[in-house]
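Minutes, project check-in
Item: structure for the 401-residue chain
Input as provided by the requester:
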Amino acid sequence: MKFRRNQNLKVERSSYKNRNNFKSNPTKNRVFIVVFCLVITIFIGFLGYQLINKRVEPNKGKTPTTTDSLDKEIKDKASESPKEPEQEPEPEQIPEVKDDPNITGYTSKNVFIYNNEGFELFGGSEAMAKKYAAILNAIKAKLGTGVKVYNMVVPTHAEFGLPPKHKKLTNSQKENIDAIYSQYSENGVIPVDAYKALQMHSNQYIYFHTDHHWTSLGASYAFNAFAKVAGEKPVDLQSLTKKTIPDFVGYLYTASKDNTLKNNPDHVDYYEIPGNLNCSLWQTGATDSITVPLYAERASGGNAYSVYLHGDSCLMTIKHTDDNKNGKKIMLVGESYKNAFGPFLALYYKEVHVVDLRHSKADLWEYVKQNGIDEVIILNYTMAANTGQMHNHLKNRFGAY
């Protein structure tokens, strides 16, 4: 603006001094006017240039954007691989049973009742856990390197279903299972962590309320833990047909005769396994087998858990007749907890041999050799794994230790 005032000042002074000359020399006046207009035009143009430069200051130093360069920039960005947003790892949320002052637990003939559910209280010890593990190490040593041996120890409902105020009534099953698994060497018995699989789903119907067993849903979560270790795919229950037996009142009611359990019955779900299966069953005391379906679908009432593998028999074999599956044979050994687990093995194994240690008198070491068994899984729930009776069954049947 200083420039403009100085210019105008000069023009005004000139015009006042030569006012008469303007009138006497019209040609000179016209030249002066043209020059004056030209100066004003240049000045306005200069101001416009400065304003434009200030307005585009953010792009200073960048190559001016033309239509061609803009098209190139768009193409370059389109050719870049899209970056996936970084995601925080999903937190593992462990369901917990909180203390409720309005609910009181009580004992009814050695069965603890809480919130309309029955519980077996665990009293196992580290010493018994280590004895159990020592027997399994001896079994693995006898079977040799050619047979894989897995061990799955399953916690009871009390581990997850009781609130903190009642946890003091039962020993830690997590510590007991850890004590067992800590005894296995790298190339020895392969532990399967059913505990964590069940813990993560402990707010679901994974245990019966009137019986000491797990449900088929609970067994399926444990099976997925096994499948991960064994290199198989997890089971997708949505792809299987589910059937249900209603009004199941199980062992915990039979033992306690508590009406709370009687008035809150369970239901038993089981899942059809696809394929042409040839199932043979050796009942306790029998020398010959009978051909049976996979499930005892007539089981009902207090006997409904026997739908799984027809209950506790010496031996049951499940063989695929038209599908080699993974080509392997597996032997499942244990007590009644194995029954809900066993059918899932038939999803992947060519042959499944299920042995109940309490009823079989067979030499299982010889059985493994004669039948070409590739893998053995010893499955016990914690109450059984911590008893001398189960320890003796394992030693006697495998001739080990």
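Outcome recorded: The mean pLDDT is 83.
No further action items on this chain.
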